[in-house]
Amino acid sequence: MRRVTFETKALNDAAIQYAAEELKVNKEFIQLNILEEKKSMLGLNKSYIVEAIIDFDVIKDGIEYLKNLLENMQIESVIEAKQLDDRQILFSVEAKENPILIGKNGKTLEAVQILLKNYINLYVDNSYVILVDIGGYKQQRKKQLEILATKTAMEVVKTKTPTRLGRMNAYERRVIHTKLSDWRDVTTESEGEEPNRFVVIKPTKK
After folding, report:
1. Superfamily of 58-135 according to CATH
2. Is pLDDT of 1 > 90?
3. What is the model's pTM?
């Protein structure tokens, strides 16, 4: 957990603002803990040694960020989140404007996911894998990609010829890699430079 220790004469808004600037986060997420109280020889003046830490809940505050983001777009939504593993969290959004939020080929959804990921990772030490799904789009897309991966892999096994799939984002590439990870007859590699990276399915050399 990121923290900063400093001395202050008062536990006031100025101390919180100082800590927020040092930690480069919004002051609403700052928590001050007194480590030591210091008094002058005559006891007339005192100061505090305090430790400032970031008090941030990835799920609760992540939902709040998404809610505010969509409200600014004048979109009413229902947002839920669940932790898939230690470092991976899925935020699910339902709204009447799902198609608008998804965008062509999921581009708007991807932009929302990047915004949320960047926001959350401002407040945590270790990066989280942040996934955003809108109206079940990602689940449907995952099924489509898994079917594509299987069909293409079968063709590669048959022809012994590497096949390059279309441009995909990191999430989509990961779906392909995961789906074919247990196949002994093919291997997968990501090639190219962002944002034009793609997956190549190759026959296993024997």
Report:
1. K homology (KH) domain (3.30.300.20)
2. no
3. 0.76
